[in-house]
Amino acid sequence: MSSTEQTLAADSHAGHNGHHDPHLAHHFDTPEQQYTSGKLGMWMFLGTEVLMFGGLFCAYAVYRHNHPEVFEYAHQYLDRKLGAINTLVLITSSLTMAWGVRAAQMGKRGLLVALLLLTILGGAGFMFIKTIEYSTKWREHIFIGSGNVFYESNPETKPQSVNGLEEEALHINEAKPETVATVKVEPDVVDPNAGTPDAALIKPPNITPAGLSEKVKAGVTERMSYNSLVKQDQTRVYTFFAIYFFMTGLHGVHVLVGMGLITWILVRAARNEFGPTYFTPVDLVGLYWHLVDLIWIFLFPLLYLIH
Amino acid sequence: MSAVTGPISYHGPTPQPQRASSDNYLNHTRGVMSWAFTLDHKRIGLMYMIGILASFLLAGLFAIMVRTMLWHPLTAEAGASQGALNSAHDLYNHMFTLHGAVMVFMFIIPSVPAILGNFILPMQLGAKDVAFPRLNLLSFYCWVVGGVFFVYLLLSGVLHAMGFNVPGGYGLDTGWTFYTPYSDAKAQGSVVAATIGVFILGFSSILTGLNFIASIHMLRPRGMGWFKMPLFLWALYSTSLIQILATPVLAITVMLLCAERAIGIGIFDPARGGDPVLFQHFFWFYSHPAVYIMVLPSMGIISELIVAFSRKHIFGYSFIAMSSLAIALLSFFVWGHHMFISGQSAVTDAIFSLITFAVAIPSAVKVFNWLATLFRADIRLKVPMMYALGFIMLFTIGGLTGLFLGTLAVDVPLTNTYFIVAHFHYVMMGSTLFAFIGGMYYWWPKMFGKMYNETFAHVAFWFVFVGFNLTFFPQFIAGTKGMPRRYASYPVLSSDGRPTHFVTYHRLSTTGAYTMGTGLFLVLGTWIQSLRRGKQAPPNPWGANTLEWRCPSPPPHDNFTETPVADDPYDLSGWKYVSEEVGWVYDREQAAADVAAHVAH
Amino acid sequence: MLHAILAASDPTFWLPRGASTVSGDVDMLFNIVMWICIFFFVLVTVLLLLFVVMYRHRPGVKRSTAAEHSTLLELTWTLIPSIIVVFLYYYGFRQYMNMVIEPPNAYEITATGKMWQWSFTYPTGVETNELHVPVNVPVRVILQSNDVIHSLYIPAFRVKKDVVPGRFNRLWFQATDNGQYDIYCTDYCGTNHSTMRSTAVVESQADFDKWMKITIDTNNNLPPVQKGKKLYMTQGCAQCHTLDGTRLVGPSWKDMWGRTEQLESGPDIVVNAPYVTESILLPQAKIVKGYPPSMPPFQLKPADISALMEFMKSISSHTSAADMMPTTGPATQPAATEPALTGSTTQK
Q1: Which CATH superfamily is domain B42-303 in?
Q2: pLDDT in tens, C283-305
Q3: Hey, are the CB atoms on C284 and A156 less than 8 Å from each other?
Q4: In the complex, which subunits touch C with 3 or more CB pairs below 8 angstroms?
Q5: ipTM of this complex prediction, to 2 decimal places
């Protein structure tokens, strides 16, 4: 038996008089049985999450294997630095969460509340940086659907439903002189990697096929340029973004759900509901949060760090 | 080594079924709210039953539409105008799609686990409820909400037919398989609503599976080791493993399809750089294990029925139990056999073909073990047993025809024809449905405390059995002769001027469908009649030894007044038949004498 | 009873007459699987019925306890089916390889599947809706789709392969008997999936060559209106556009040319050469009010589009004399240079 289960067993024997334990459900015989069942259930749920994201990782693997150059080119549009910060933030929040579970087991209410608060802040920080990344892509016209200049909107096979984007999509690949003119290189966009071998990863907004900037035409050294892709691959660039936004978007939804769950636990912790004999919800939510972190740890290198 | 495999305890509470009291789970609390927010697994099982049977009726009506439309070849040669053809084809396409989608997602996948599993599993464990009762209720509401999306599909179709313009598409005409790029670019149907509905229904399935695994791991009573569990529980356990591992992949697949259709994030549409065959891989990775979600619980029911009505211990218990697990495991590695002609490499085809043959073996092992159970038995042909025997025969046909399809060279001409349609109806309907109905009759007295009319139910059985074979056997012939599936109209004459005879096979099939439909309505009739005028059921009308028969019919709210002690679930030696009113009774002294005799061996 | 079983076990009862080099072997394999199935089905059913009858409950008769398991039996009925299925797997795969590996020097035809018509393109450039092949010559068919997944199935040749957009799947066959054989589409593709059918015509090399020459000549010499009418039939326009005024998914072509139409959005247009061309190549660009956006694109050659327009003109009462001047291709001039047609002031 693990030490946590021993704690539970000892305490339950001490105070076990019929079903006086308010947390013991009527269909369980002992608190250990209930606790172990809960853990088993949560691990199974995490298994389902792994399989769900596994499908996406599979799609990623298939496309990357079949079109490696597309991925090499398109990933340059992602901000590696922000991604790395996000990774650190999430790992730290996992640490505070795990510490919080320990605090709950030891009955240290104040510490538990503080750590849960820090975890939520970590999640919020992650979402904040994510928002910055997404809004930057929106501005740079490398968002989803027809908000992405690489979106090969073949009008013959686009969806039948009228959603307002069709008209724009139909003409998105036509030269829009006024658009190109307004989306100019902002002089104050500083490349934080300037001067290092990893320079030119954050491209100025107007290096797109809809208006290749003079800089690119002048043959500036980059790792990969749009022109270096074969014609068929040029029509496949959008696939990378589709996969990127779907994976990080779904992950983001899971972060938000996790934050909600931790908030719920925080409220209960503030009401002093957890202690050595009952900390199951904190433990289970902690497991969920660790999985969310783990998924990001796989996402980050696969999407941002392609070499 | 044989016979007694577990301790028979005569020191604990007697296995004598407790007397029925007037307070049972049905009247324990009253009012709609007490049902809507119930945590009682039995009430949840009943609510599922009403919804799931209603879905079966709906999907069945679509099937009748499909078969009725196929009575006439409906071709231009027969004089139909292009406009009439287009409309008829559209209607047909919606009908077969909705038939498939409602049947698969709202009826078959949940049927046995959600109704019979929910009701019986805790009782077979001697427990008061499943491990997570609130998750159980949540899974029910997931089913309801998913169902609402499907109802929307129907309503949008009806509205469209009445002339209203429905934004976002109407009905569903993609086939239940949603192949891209038709489903994300061309379909007129409301694919977004359908995919959201399927996603939510998937969670109902996942939560049920999760619940059952935790229950079986954690709530087994003293004396019930893994190899002393009833086989129904082994079946549900294997099913639940598939449910929690495969359904999430379906979830991500429909989410991706929904996103592709709605906002253009796509990896399946070739026009946007995607690959339609990738969709097929994703889809079948779930949908093949899904067919084992359908059939494994049914096989568990058959084990229970064969034992109870043969009055004999099951033959080869551990082999049947292990075969359930083997099927669950292997089922994850055969999805490519739905895609032999999609253009995947021959090596891929070969690997899937080999593993497909491998997964057939455990099923064959079960059939032989059931037959061996019947050998030198004491068979009573009550209605549940009729369905069990029907299952064995029809599952044999369904499974054997799978051999044609696993053999690569023979699959090429047969795939995507009516041969496939007949094959899967034999395993899904001839097997799963028959076992489901058999299980319903078997556990009906326990669930409602009422018996049904045996004669009436026998008549209904024969309508269903004959009707089923008449419906689907001709389809094997039509398929080998080349009749493709999902065809609203079909040729009367072949290219060389000779008659195709498809019309004959279709008309035989339609006649069978009406017969079977009559039979199913008769089955419903037996159930309704039982509820209104059925005789009071004894606690153990069949003389089975699994724990659910140790409590009154219908059970009290907490199932057992005293926790029963588990023994060998298939040792029927202690039970003696008294009368129809009293049912079977446990004869303590006689059983003790039997054990003493064994010990003396 | 036995006669019925024997009849049912003859592959020709089940399968259409084979007409390719592989059909004999496929049918033999089918036969083998069938006999295995019949054997096991009869075994199981007979045992079932036998046991039910022999061991039916008779009041007063007590049964002796029989064994509850037998490892020997379990091994037997696991191993024997396993051996059988390994054989089936091996021979199935071997024969499958024969069906997959193309012989060299095959005559190559491209089959195009589009909703809802097959068209076959030959090395000579001829495009037809029927598949003509010479007998005893290996033929390779390259499969391409213009829109969704289809599947080419020729039952008599025992061949079937999915037609996937974005991929070029292929199948091959060598026909052994002259005759006409059904071609079906076997992957659901929408409304008229069930009428997406064709015919494979197998004839001697001499007849095939003769047919090819006639077809080429006809295509080259057909007057535009007749050619347009032929295209109307063969390209699938007939499925959605009638010639007699009846409205289907799309408007009838009767009196359509030259008519002023109101669009879903945008100013009115006249049905003229630029509009018709655009509607064929990019049908979603301008949708007439009241019609659904259902038309798929058709990648037709300019000469074909021109022929279709001539046909449309010939059945419309709005066609002016100026219209009937021969056109060499679809109008590439902007609409402003189009000769004025009857009435409308809203022309561009």
Answers
A1: Cytochrome c oxidase-like, subunit I domain (1.20.210.10)
A2: 888 888 888 877 877 878 888 88
A3: yes
A4: A, B
A5: 0.91
